[in-house]
Design a protein that fits this description.
By secondary structure, the chain is an alpha+beta fold. It has helices at residues 90-99, 115-121, 194-202, 204-208, 214-228, 249-262, 280-286, 316-334, and strands spanning 2-8, 20-27, 44-47, 53-54, 59-66, 71-75, 79-85, 124-125, 128-129, 134-141, 146-151, 172-182, 236-240, 246-248, 270-272, 275-277, 293-294, 297-299, 306-309, 343-344. It folds into three domains: 2-66, Uridine Diphospho-n-acetylenolpyruvylglucosamine Reductase, domain 2; 71-228, Uridine Diphospho-n-acetylenolpyruvylglucosamine Reductase, domain 3; 236-344, UDP-N-acetylenolpyruvoylglucosamine reductase, C-terminal domain (Uridine Diphospho-n-acetylenolpyruvylglucosamine Reductase, domain 1), CATH 3.90.78. The strands form six sheets. Strands 6-7-12-10-11 form a five-stranded antiparallel beta sheet, with helices on one face. A four-stranded mixed beta sheet has the order 1-2-5-3, with no helix packed on it. Helix 1 (90-99) packs antiparallel against helix 5 and helix 3 crosses helix 5 (214-228).
Length: 345
């Protein structure tokens, strides 16, 4: 275990906010969590890869960062259960699964961050969520100072959320995650343009005759992401900043009517039972924000859902100001209140 004080955090968050933490603890085993000195600055908070958060200022407490990075496959009859350390890079796990011909997380390739945070956030992309593959989550309870394990059902997964983000917030430190991967051919190609991109890359015969591999789907997804999302090392961001709003069908019809009256074109949407999911990127773009700059902060010119540290010098307040202006304009024009996906700390 390493303990550092007054730690600059620019390298530990993909937004590249130039803030600092009073204390940072980095640990290599789950057992070390039981030995954290009680007198370290409070509050205590787990830090993953820093890819889905916005530091709004200096952090007065202690950040706990996992360096537990093992991948341990356990052979099962119908699927392969893989136990993964919370500090392992999520995309390294995706690459490992694809290299071993295992299905389930190839659509989640190239998402920055670590495995523990993926299980907390319930990351998702192209029709797949972490909740679809999580089997168990192993944790250390900071309140009762003991180790525990939860099934996926107990984690209360929802759209980009879990009990770890709600009523369990900051209580449990994830130490390992059990991931179920399939041996049988099971690509998921029917969300967005994944199928079209796969056909363009590998040909219709390969796609339609069941000849794809997890590696080829992973390659397709990485290609799509690179076309529209900035690489964190090149341009500071936290990826998708807002959740896609899920609204009553009547509200979707109101947006549809407004789009017709103002010539905004087709309104992309996904049915969710009695509700409808409308892409936040479409709403933001139609409000004129795509590619705009506000001081050192901006909206990415290829994907309106991504707020960026445009100059590398943006202060937290500039990102927060831009966030509020976007939310206000979407609410004013479409009557929809956007909710950030990115955690504010």
């Amino acid at each position: 275990m390493d303990i550092f004080y007054d730690v600059p955090l620019a390298r530990l968050n993909t937004f590249r906010m130039k803030v600092q933490a009073a204390c940072l603890v980095e640990y290599d085993t789950a057992e070390e969590l039981g030995g954290i000195p009680e007198d370290l600055p409070k509050p205590w908070k787990a830090l993953g890869g820093g890819s889905n958060l916005l530091f709004t200022g200096d952090f007065p407490g202690t950040l706990l960062h996992s360096r537990i990075r093992f991948i341990q496959p356990v052979e099962m009859q119908e699927y392969v259960l893989v136990r993964v350390g919370s500090g392992a890079c999520w995309d390294d796990l995706c690459a490992w699964a694809a290299d071993h011909g295992l299905w389930g997380i190839e659509n989640l390739s190239h998402i920055p961050g670590e495995v523990g945070a993926a299980a907390v956030q319930n990351i998702g992309a192209y029709g797949v969520e972490a909740a679809d593959v999580v089997d168990t989550v192993e944790c250390y309870d900071l309140v009762e100072r003991r180790f525990c394990r939860f099934s996926a059902a107990e984690c209360g997964y929802g759209y980009r959320t879990s009990r770890f983000k709600e009523e369990w917030k900051d209580r449990y430190i994830v130490t390992a995650v059990g991931i179920r991967l399939a041996k049988e051919y099971s690509p998921k190609l029917d969300y967005g343009n994944v199928r079209t991109a796969a056909i363009r890359r590998f040909g219709a015969y390969e796609v339609e005759t069941g000849s794809l591999t997890p590696s080829r789907v992973r390659e397709t997804v990485i290609g799509i992401r690179r076309e529209k999302l900035p690489e964190p090392e090149e341009l500071g961001s936290a990826g998708s900043f807002f959740r896609n709003p899920i609204v009553p069908r009547e509200q979707y019809w109101q947006v549809l009517r407004k789009a017709g009256e103002e010539g905004l074109g087709e309104v992309p949407h996904y049915d969710a039972g009695e509700l409808v999911k409308i892409p936040a990127a479409w709403l933001i773009e139609k409000c004129g924000w795509k590619g705009r700059r506000e001081g050192n902060a901006g909206v990415y010119d290829r994907q309106a859902l991504v707020l960026v540290n445009a100059t590398g010098q943006a202060a937290p307040g500039e990102i927060l100001s831009l966030e509020e202006k976007i939310k206000a304009s979407v609410l004013d024009r479409f009557g929809i209140r956007l909710t950030p996906e990115v955690e504010h700390i």
